[in-house]
Write a structure and sequence with these properties.
The model has no long low-confidence stretch (mean pLDDT 93). Helix 1 runs parallel beside helix 2. The protein has a single domain, classed as TIM Barrel (Alpha-Beta Barrel). The N and C termini lie far apart (39 Å). 27% of the residues lie in helices and 23% in strands. The strands form two sheets. A nine-stranded mixed beta sheet has the order 8-7-5-4-3-2-1-9-10. Strand 11 and strand 12 form a beta hairpin. The chain contains six helices and twelve strands. The chain is globular and about 45 Å long.
């Protein structure tokens, strides 16, 4: 029987858009039969609730508070809880797994990393990077930006996406041979829809999940049936045009197949 994990979620303690505490999330996921969760609050380039005027180490303590709240409850009720984060670069966003609080406190420059630096430095720590919801198009985004060279894989299913977004992401992932994950992007528990990954072995640490991604092992996707079907999805228009990021992070129009 596979082990079920949430890979993308936000708490109100560290994400400005979060509506539930880490403890509330932990209880809900346990009730829903999940084996564990990875808390990925918005880091300081994104929709964080942490005061940017505070000293760096205090900012990191506050950023970790949602995860630590979930972890305390998870330990009590028997739910695995691990730490991650989500960073934003001009509306392309990345999930980072494998960093410790001690590392983050010692590296205030991480707030200013470029996409390339982020991948390189995270790899040095033994961590990994996943591009979150790469084909999402929302009112606050001016275009779709794909950065496969800045990540170890992509999130092809996200409960906060339109079905079109995920269908395009999975097609892209299959054609490019990318590591593919799924997550709910949950901000409030109870939630009406939960996505996640199904793994053959129970995780003992976030390093286990990182290894699965870096080793390109098979990852089962916990998503609704028919999530990736293109039938019945509205036609793609110019608003959905995708752009590839070059090595400097500049936009280059993607091939025609990523417009159609």
């Amino acid at each position: 029987m596979p082990f079920l994990y949430e890979t993308h979620m936000h708490t109100c303690q560290a994400s400005a858009c979060g509506k539930s505490t880490g403890k509330e999330h932990a209880r809900f996921y346990k009730e829903q039969g999940f084996d564990g969760i990875i808390v990925t609050d918005h880091f300081f380039g994104g929709n964080t609730s942490v005061d940017c005027t505070l000293p760096w180490e205090e900012r990191i303590d506050r950023f970790w508070s949602g995860y630590e709240d979930a972890k305390e409850e998870g330990d009590r009720i028997g739910l695995d809880v691990f730490f991650g984060l989500e960073q934003n670069f001009g509306f392309d966003e990345y999930l980072i797994y494998g960093l410790t609080k001690e590392y983050m406190k010692a590296h205030p420059e991480m707030e200013r990393w470029t996409r390339r630096q982020q991948l390189e430095e995270v790899h040095k720590t033994g961590g990994c990077v996943i591009q979150a919801h790469p084909f999402r198009m929302r009112f606050y985004m001016d275009r779709i930006r794909l950065g496969p060279q800045f990540a170890d894989g992509i999130e092809v299913a996200n409960a906060g996406n339109e079905r079109l977004d995920d269908a395009r992401a999975r097609r892209y992932g299959l054609e490019k041979g990318l590591v593919m994950t799924a997550g709910s992007d949950n901000h409030r528990s109870p939630a009406s829809s939960l996505f996640g990954v199904m793994l053959e072995k129970r995780l003992t640490s976030i390093d286990d999940y990182v290894k699965i991604i870096l080793d390109r092992n098979e990852i089962g996707l916990y998503v609704p049936e028919g999530r990736f079907e293109l039938n019945g999805i509205p036609e793609i228009d110019e608003r959905h045009k995708a752009y590839l990021l070059d090595s400097s992070g500049r936009d280059i129009p993607a091939p025609k197949e990523w417009i159609d």
